[in-house]
Each structure stands twice: as structure tokens, then as C-alpha cells.
Amino acid sequence: MTQTLSQLEHPDAFIRRHIGPDLDQQKQMLQQIGASDLPTLIASIVPENIQLSASPLQLPSASEHQALAELKAIAAKNLRYKSWIGMGYSAVLTPPVILRNLLENPGWYTAYTPYQPEVSQGRLEALLNFQQVTLDLTGMDVASASLLDEATAAAEAMAMAKRVSKRKNANKFFVAEDIHPQTLDVIKTRAETFGFELVIDRAERALDHQDLFGICLQYCGSQGQLHDYRQLIAALSQQGVVVAVAAEFMALVLLESPGKLGADIVFGSSQRFGVPMGYGGPHAAFFATKETFKRAMPGRIIGVSRDVQGNIALRMAMQTREQHIRREKANSNICTSQVLLANIAGMYAVWHGPKGLARIAQRIHRYTKILAKIVQDNGLTLRYSQWFDTLTVEVSDKAEVLKRAKQQHINLRSDLHHAVGITLDETTQRQDIIVLLEVLLGRNIPIDLDQEDDHVSQQAIIPPALHRETAILTHPVFNQYHSETEMLRYLHKLERKDLALNQAMIPLGSCTMKLNAVAEMLPITWPEFADLHPFCPTNQAAGYLQMIEQLSEWLITLTGYDALCMQPNSGAQGEYAGLLAIRRYHESRHQAQRHLCLIPASAHGTNPASAQMAGMEVVVVACDKQGNIDLEDLRSKASQAAEHISCIMVTYPSTHGVYEQTIREVCEIVHQYGGQVYLDGANMNAQVGITTPGHIGADVSHLNLHKTFCIPHGGGGPGMGPIGVKAHLASFVPGHSIVQSTLLTEQGAVTAAPFGSASILPISWMYIRMMGGEGLKQASTLAILNANYIASRLSSDYDILYTGPEGRVAHECILDIRPIKERTGISEMDIAKRLIDYGFHAPTMSFPVAGTLMVEPTESESLIELDRFVNAMLAIRREIEQVAEGEWPLHDNPLVNAPHIQQELVSDWHHAYSRETAVFPAGAENKYWPTVKRVDDVYGDRNLSCSCVPIADYQ
């Protein structure tokens, strides 16, 4: 049939590329399931009373090139001034070898959190490098594998200080007044919910307070002043006060480590190690502490362990999923960290090495000294005499200075009284110094920079007592990859150890590992988005603000809410921010006694952890045998809570993978007692275009943009967790103390930057723009189809734990392995590890029910890949039967010995099954090789080591 011109021009090409099954495959799958068509399938699964009649978003789809052109025009509205604002953010030079082969490489950015260490050894090694950098620069004993940003790390340090303090009756936390203002903003928010009293004053006055449990100091103050806090820290430590110090990677290359100064906790931002400013993020925060406090640390630690053959193997230690186990007793609610960005920072250190980093830091400091000398020689005064890279210059004509800066397309720090701030960085050139002097002095002056350099070369601005004496980065990994050839091969070697979406389907339940299209990823490295300082004047960020406003409007429509806050930079942060909005709302109505949060027993572990962080008390609501919220128990708990109920946190579709028929009733019961409904957005991929949280009856939700809206997981982060709210909560979502915008409220912040990790928002903008309203609905529909196809094909061999009234699942299904284990001895762990031999990442293991595997295929997987996974699961089921029938002994079979590594092909073979069965169960084509056998978790926790392994130990 001849197609019309309009049909040939129809820009739905991207939808066909995003959605895996084509029309013929969809028909085959529907036939397998026993459904006549997609609308009939959805009608049999989603409760009729919450279904929408049409897609809520009336947005036509665009082709990849159309969407990129639209976004490029928006990005062009951002003005790329040179920002010398500082305040924890500086321009960087990302090494191209890292930009192309890590940041822009799907082998790195599409990988999942390394919960399955055998398929994650590459990124685990990269994270171990990051931890080693942190240990060397901070001088501490134990480091984590990154937090969300410097400000939230400060809040975590405060909470940790309270946990470990021996002054149990003390309730005051001291903050030095020269901390970055955005950090103070987040500390204030967290202190309020914990009920801590903040004391904000000059650091020297901390000793005047006798009832402190902790203190936060900034090594290089926000205005640049460098502090020698040795004596103060010693005096505070003697009194039992826990000391946290904010620092910065580049400064620590030259400065004595905070550990040597006596700090208990050290944190800060690694942004200056090659990560673009990106209007605020994402950036990896570092966090380190003393050995004594290691079990109280928030976040994730990468530990050195061994596999069952005794070989070195890396894994996430202790905190691996501790919020899912300890729930409201967890150290924090952190679920997403900043793995991709931590890896960039770590590789920046690998690429430059200790000598290269020293050159960069010395050059920055030398330029700052030259600028300082000439400024002072020409009659201006510096507020401080000791600094690393930041000058506070006192000026009588501040307005004129800022006017001249604007004319030169320069941003200076402008919020200081009768002064401007200037922070130099690795991008600073000689011409920049000349222009800065012209801006400050109001005239051109003849300068010989080489002569000035001679004058300052022997000048000691950093006092001798604060000069770093200990060597850094002595491990070979930081001293051998300095040619691009070697660095390229090192990055590729690590990439090959991992299993990411560029290799195979990642069938994780509750984590939606869908296509992260290249067209979506391209804009994040455009300079128009990458180079903006988060505190630049808003008129310079007009493109960002337009993009954020459009994306917000689309998400508001897709959620059925009235307003959206784009600040939270992870799903767990979104939970916290949403609960804060509920708390503030109740307080505004003089109902501060509402402090109870109802949480179903099946909920994500971050839910109770977030409730505790928001100052709420958790009340667990039971689930029935079908996995649904027990309405009678809910009524009973709500009635008992009565005027003390703050909210309920529910996930929809439920964590058990079904659309609960009574969700509207759940909302009504809670509203009846004056509570609010928080609907966790983890499973929004089964809602978009079909229903909305607002239509269901919820008041607030966070959205995992790194799940439903295509921001890649990056090996464990970055994430984004913006919150949608109903109108009555709109004025209670987070705001910001530095940036004012109609998109922000006047409330306290939860993250350092006003719009969280703004530079990854173009990914979700592109996804929605290319899919359009109908395309998004198709995506949700096909996610449900794919899940039911898998459930249908596997149901004869595996028990499907929970289904809806017509025996169907939502967008994920839970395989119950408990009967198999009871009969055969083979566990869900054995199946998960055996899947590696078949070339697959395991489904989610033992969550939300112990002894199960939860599978979520996503709409991006074609029938070919779904069948490959199903066939692997069916083959594993046959292998289990061979064990059950005695053909293979329980202690020696392909499942309990999985995964199998390449070396086993040439080693002595004494197993009851063949080498071919071990390593090629699905054939040799496109074989994925894990590099370690099953990791010994117990050994790793008993022998915690979070630093780089000596090369000799690998031999």
C-alpha cells in the first residue's frame, strides 16, 4: 500500500526504537497470555475506578533530530559567562579520554548498582580508587563510595555525630559561620526534623558551649580563609565533641589532611576532579571517618573480600542494603549514591596521578597569589591573608565592579558585604588574570605576569603548619596510566568486567532498567548545560529554567498533581522532601502532634528510613496473604493513631507487583483521619498514561527520573527524585537560600543546588518530548505486557507469588523459590549466580519477600531478549531437577558453583558436570565472562578493607 506524505513524515520513529516488541511480537505475546489485545489486557489488570480514558499528556511525539534541535535552541538561551563564584563549585577540564570512554559510554552509564558483585568488579574497582583518593587526601581510616552532594553530606555528618557521641544528653550542634551558605541551609532543614538545636557562630567560640554533641568546621572557609584548627579540635575532642570538617579535594592536594588535624569526620565535594558544574550536579560527595565509627557511616562502602577460590574480589560492604534490613533504624535513607560521578573523579586522579594533581593545585594557587599581590599593590584590601584559591576583595564601589564584570561576561561572588569573592580554578589562563584586574581596579594596568610570578614564588600564603607533608596516591594505579593508550585500555579492562545494558537485559524488579537512548544522553555534555554555575544570575540560566519549567509541567500532567519541586537529587531524597512538605503542612494548621507514619510491611526500606529522618514515628500496617494492604489492620491502626496520624506511605502498583484493587479506599481511610497520602513513585512506569497518583487520591509522590524517565542508573547513581504535590502542599516543598525563582518556595533546602542534579534533566526532557503522550502510554502498556508474558511462560515451572484477581501481574512479577529450595536445596542465590553463566544480571533477590526473585523486564526489551531470559530460567529449572533427581550432588552442581570463570576452562576439573555445561550453558556466542567466582560476603565484613589492594595480592 502506498503511504501518504503525512504518514511518511510522522515522527514516531523514536517510539518504535524505544519500545522493544514490534506489532507482530506483541500479537505473539498476547496469544501466549490469552488476551485479545492490549486494551483488554490493561482492563483486566488495572482497577477500572482508577483508569484514565485517555493519555493525560496531550503532547505529540518528536523525532530524535527534531527534539535535539528544540532542546539546542533552549540551551542557547543559557549565557556561558566565566564564573569565579566558588562556593564549592568551579569550572573543570574533564579529560577527553574520561569524557568519551566513561561519561559518554553506555558500558559505564547503563550499569546497575553493584548488588551482584560478580558482574560488577570493574566499577567496584573504580569506586575503590575513589575511596583511596578520599583516604589519602583526608587522612582518615575509612571512606565511603560517595554521597549525594556536599550539603547533604554535612547533614549526614551531623546525624552521624549524634549517633556516635558519648554526650548522650547533649542536643546542640555547632556550625562555624563561614561554612558555605547552601550547606548551612540543608543542615538547618535536617536539624529541625531531628529536633537538634543549632549554634551558628565563629568557630573560636565553640568552646564557650558545654552541651555540644558535635561541630562542623570548614577547612577553607566559604570566603577563602584557611584555618589551622588543630588546637580547637584537640580541645573539643577532649570534651567529647565529635568534629566534622568540610574540605575540598583540590585544596587537600596541597594542604595537610584534616585527619592529621584531629577530625573525626571529613566530607566535601569531589566536583573539581573533572566533573562539570552542570548548574549544580550531579557531583559525588566524599565522606570519611575514623575506624572507630565505621559502622555508623551513612552510604556505601566498597570492601575488599575474596571469592570461594580465595581470589581477591570486591563487594559492597556492611551498608550494602542496610536501609532495607534496618528500616527506620538505618544510618540513613540513602539508596542512590553518585557512582558515575565518583568514578569520573577517581579516574581523574588516576589520569593525572599525584604529580599531575600537584601541578594543577600549585598552578591554581600560584595564579591566586599573583592576583592577590597585584590587587594589593594597587590599593585594594584582602579580607583574609591565608587562602588556597579564593580571595575576598574589599571594594568601595561594589556596584561598579559588578557592572564591569557583567560587561566582561564574568561572574564574581556578589553576596558579600562591601566585598566580592573570586575563586580561581584549573581553567584559569593568563588573560583571565588581566581581565579580573581590569574589573576590580576599573582601569588597565601594565603587567608582566612572569615578573609577578617571580615575586610571589617564595611567598608563603599557606602556613608551614598546614603544608601537606605526607605523600598521596602512592598506589600503582595512580602512577601508571598517564598515556591515553594506557588509560583507554584500563577503562576498557574495567568495563569488560561488568555487565550493563549494552550486554544484556537487566531484569531487576522495582528498578526499571530501560533504554537510555543516545539522543537523550547527548545534551548533558553540551557546554550550554555543562558549564553553568548553580548560583549564576538566573537570567544567565534562562534556557535551564525554561527546560525545567517545561519538564515540570509535563510531569505535573503525568502525575495528576498541581505543583512539582525539582530539587531532590535521589528517590530517597524525594521521599524525605515529600514527608517534610506533609510535616510543614500539618504544622501550618497547628497540628504538630501529627507524627505517626503508617507504612505497609511490604514497603521499600527507604520509606521507614525517610520517615525517621523527617521526625516521624513508624507504624507498620500488615499485608494479607495476597500481598495487599490489610484494610482491617489499616482501619485499626488509623483509628488508634487518630489525630496523631501524619500520613501513609504506599507504593503503587504495590511492591508485590500487583495493582491493589482497594487503593482508593486506602487513601480515603487515611484522609478520614486527617492524614496525607504519600505514594512512592518507584513503580510509576506502570502508571504513566494509564492512571495518575493524583487521580488515585494521593497528595504527594516522588518520581524516580532514573527509572521511569530514562536517566541511567550509572552503576548506582546519579538519580533524581522530584516530588509532585497537590495544591495544598505546594508552598511547603523545598526552596533555596541563595537562588530565588518562581520555581522555588521560601522553605529550607534538602540539597545543595536549587534544582538538584540539573544537568541530567535534559535526559528526561528528551524522553518525554520524543515519546509524546501516547508514546508514554504505550511504554507503560508494553511494560505490563512484557511482565505478564514472562510470568505466563515461567508459571508452569516457577510459582508466581502474587497476582491480581484475574491471575495477572502489573509491570513486574515475583518468582517464589522457597518451595524449590525446600524440595531440592537450591536457593534463589544459586539461581541468581547461575544466571551470570547464561549472560544475565540476576533479578532482585529476596526483596520484598525473602527467598524470591522479582523480575521487571521493562518495555524496551524485545521478544527475542525476553525469550532468551525465559529460556535461561527454564534451563536452570531443568538443572535444578537434575540435582533433585540425584544426577548431580547438592554440593557439586552448576548452580551452587556458579558463576564459572574463564580460568576454569584450563584448570584441573573434578566436578560432576562438564566444563561446557559450566561455562557455555547458552552457547558460546556473545559470552559474558565474570572475573571472579562467588564472593564471600562474610569474609568481607569480618575483614573490612576499603582501600586499594596491593598489586602483588592479585598475582
From TrEMBL:
Query: A single GO molecular function, which one?
Result: glycine binding
List its EC numbers. Answer: 1.4.4.2
Q: Which residues form the Glycine dehydrogenase C-terminal domain?
A: 779-900
Q: State any GO CC term.
A: cytosol
Under which main EC class is this enzyme filed?
Answer: oxidoreductase
Q: Which residues form the signal peptide?
A: none
Query: Which residue intervals define the domain Glycine cleavage system P-protein N-terminal in the entry?
Result: 16-440, 461-741
Which UniProt keywords are listed?
Oxidoreductase, Pyridoxal phosphate
**Which biological process terms from the Gene Ontology are attached to this UniProt entry?**
glycine decarboxylation via glycine cleavage system
Catalysis performed (reactions): N(6)-[(R)-lipoyl]-L-lysyl-[glycine-cleavage complex H protein] + glycine + H(+) = N(6)-[(R)-S(8)-aminomethyldihydrolipoyl]-L-lysyl-[glycine-cleavage complex H protein] + CO2
Which parts of the sequence carry N6-(pyridoxal phosphate)lysine? 707
Q: Which cofactor does it need?
A: pyridoxal 5'-phosphate
PANTHER family for this protein: GLYCINE DEHYDROGENASE (DECARBOXYLATING), GLYCINE DEHYDROGENASE, DECARBOXYLATING
Q: How does it assemble?
A: The glycine cleavage system is composed of four proteins: P, T, L and H.
Main function: The glycine cleavage system catalyzes the degradation of glycine. The P protein binds the alpha-amino group of glycine through its pyridoxal phosphate cofactor; CO(2) is released and the remaining methylamine moiety is then transferred to the lipoamide cofactor of the H protein.
Return the similarity comment: Belongs to the GcvP family.
> HAMAP family from the entry?
GcvP
**Name of the protein in its database record:** Glycine dehydrogenase (decarboxylating)
